[in-house]
Amino acid sequence: MGEVGIAVVLVGVMLVAMGVGALVVGRGFVRVGASEALVVHGAGPEPKVSFTGMLVFPFQSHERVDLSAKELVLERRGRDSLRCRDQLRADVILAVSVAVNATTDDVLRAARSFGGARTFDLGAVRERLESRFLAALAEVVRAVDYDALVDRRGELADRFVEVVGKELDGYTLREAHFRLVEQTPLEVLDPDDILDAVAIRKITERAGPEKARTREILVERRRADAAVDLARSTASLAGARADSGYRSDVAAAEARVVALEEELDEARSTLEALRGGGQ
User: Is the whole model's pTM more than 0.90, yes or no?
Assistant: First the structure.
């Protein structure tokens, strides 16, 4: 074989090698989406992380890590409700948003702690983080009275984020907000539990004046409606024949107004007595 033949063979070998190389690169290059990271093992003493894509050779392994935000809903209600500093108990629902930080260290931390595939599984993320979140929520609620919990939801949600902290196996707690804060129903409380017994007493003491005030408002509303009815009846009587039927309607409306005024006076007296007794 002459020099020309050898050159042709070498060119052919080079072309085949380039074709094989292009095929390997084409098949071995792994791309990831905008909300993912790629972790490649076997590329050196430490795994490599990429947020766009990387060439992965057959002797290497790789996994994807989900970077998208996930919402976890923490719910403590009924017999699982949380106790406040003043011993009252609260039904609470708190929604939190978590995601893996888009940094090499946090992606590797999440991959080691969860496994890349499990970062895509909301149930797995919840299983890993929920107990820590619930403990932090109980701590935040226990530090304030019930009224403060109701009035300062935004501030206490921020406090929850502080209590949880930043070390979450590669995840970060982005935000938290209360969806529900309500007083635990009285019938759920256990009168044989000493702390629940305190809560029952406080709720009962607070309920008396509130019920009296509610009754006062309802009576005022009904009296106003009766006054309107009386005015309408009087106007109708003025423009029509003053027969016994019209006079009867007016008399009934007047009697209703008088009765409601008496009921209103009674409701106000009850409310004042309850307020005086609580001082």
Answer: no
